[in-house]
Amino acid sequence: MNSEDLLSSNSPEDFEIRATKNLKMTQHLFFNAIPLAINHLNTNFVELWRKWAHREDEVQALLIDVSNKDEIIEQLRRNLKTATEKRDEHYSVSQQWKQRTIELSTLLSRRTEKMIGTSRTSRPQNH
Predict the structure, then answer these.
(1) Which of 9, 51, 71, 79 has its CA 20 to 30 A from that of 85?
(2) What CA–CA distances, in Å, run from 49 to 24, 36, 57, 83?
(3) Confidence check: pLDDT of 11 > 80
């Protein structure tokens, strides 16, 4: 029986049964292989913890970045709303000016027609 047989045990009972069959291998595992495995697990845990902490920092930075972008998007929405309101106001004012221009043009045309009509009627006629 070798160390792989012991390590491939499916349950504590299975490990115990196999360990009692080969005491020398069990001693080897307890004094050498298991401490090495624990040390390896601890090293892996420390490395994984470091990576997790780094990832957590990255996620926090991304959250701050997204939050800042949300603020920028909200500011852009407010600016767009203001610009739309101003555009609508300018359109309304331009329509009022257009209407006023039409009214003045019509009034000017009528006065011009009256003046032309008045000057024609006041001219002496040559027969």
Answers:
(1) 71
(2) 36, 20, 12, 50
(3) no
Print the SS3 string covering the chain: CCHHHHHCCCCHHHHHHHHHHCHHHHHHHHHHHHHHHHHHHHHHHHHHHHHHHHHHHHHHHHHHHHHHHHHHHHHHHHHHHHHHHHHHHHHHHHHHHHHHHHHHHHHHHHHHHHHHHHHHHHCCCCC
Poorest-confidence range of 24-28, 77-81, 107-111, 119-123? 119-123
Tens of pLDDT, residue by residue over 17-68, are: 766 777 777 777 777 777 888 888 999 999 999 999 999 999 999 999 998 8
